[in-house]
Amino acid sequence: MRPAISTTHTYGHLHHRAKQLTLFFLTFLLLCSNGLTAQSAAAVPDDAEVNDSHFHLTNYIQEGTDIHKFLEIMGTKVGRVALFGIPLQQQWSYRNSGDRAPAYYLESDSPLYYYSFTDAFIAMAYKSLTPAQQARFDPMITGFNPADMYAVDHIKRVLKTFPGVFTGIGEFSIHKEFVSAKIAGEVASLNDPALDRILDFCAESGLLVILHNDLDTPFPKEGKPPAYLEQMKALIKRHPKTTIIWAHTGMGRIVRPVEHHAAVLESMLKDPAFSNLYFDISWTEVAKYITATPEATKIAAALLNRYPDRFLFGTDEVAPSSQEQYLKIYSLYDPLWKLLTPEASEKVRKGNYERLFDAARRKVRAWERANLGAQAPPSAAPHQDIQVHGAENPGNRR
Which of 169, 171, 143 is nearest to 283 (CA)? Predict the structure, then answer.
């Protein structure tokens, strides 16, 4: 005789299983949906207003914004960003400042020193991203001493250790107000063979160069020619196959635009010997000069409209904590954007970045395949534990 089967028990069991399967299926769909949404949001936005050719993730004590948080700050307004730290570390000397820890180079008389680990840090932060997120960044190598003949070996070592990551070098400085004199060791020079070796290798490998070099010294005597202009021009001419972006058009916080600044730039822009030279208009200090008066803005706009292929927008922000802080300079340039032609505006804000950095990406990946025996990986394994700890809002103090 067969045992009696409880139909009530069977129905209840099947109903419970159906509820479990339904819940599992809905959860699976939700996770897929969230994943696709996050992946889509991380991809380069088609309607982004601007690309940033000059951004520091960390500051002078190697603290800053977590790269995942920075993606949120970029949102859909910023498409792509040239990503680097700062190659200099401010020393904390107890004899100089006691318990007060300096976070900026103007807060201490102690020296700055080259901090090569910045390159590994930037690479690992980049590798912690998904492939779609990585597509929004162009990491740059900065942790080398441009007065050191071994600097090229450091750059090659970084490419070998992190193939498929870096697009260029910089921002690095040769002559920079208040900074150059504080760096421990030999002072960098535009005439140094070590710098020539670096730029020769960049021509060979395709690495894009972002170089900070003040046109002049602070508080120059009236009537004297800019101190470093001719040396800088000679350097660029010595390296015609190296793509160079001259940061801030040669200006600084104290180093004001030289007399007839626009004319000085135009003399190079119209000379075929400088066809490899570009300028970025990054840094709020530069924006203040350009928008100081309606006449100054008109002069700048006229230059950009005549040479729309040769200028790039950048923020030069350092470890921002909000989009408002990050894009302050973009708003400062509102009077300039209004005076540009639609073609010039698009190129300065976005197109020139894409053209130059895309070309550099292709060349560097080809060099890696040919010289390192390594195929640049299409993506990197995530390291979700990478964080940038420290100051929540170091501000744009560069």
Answer: 171
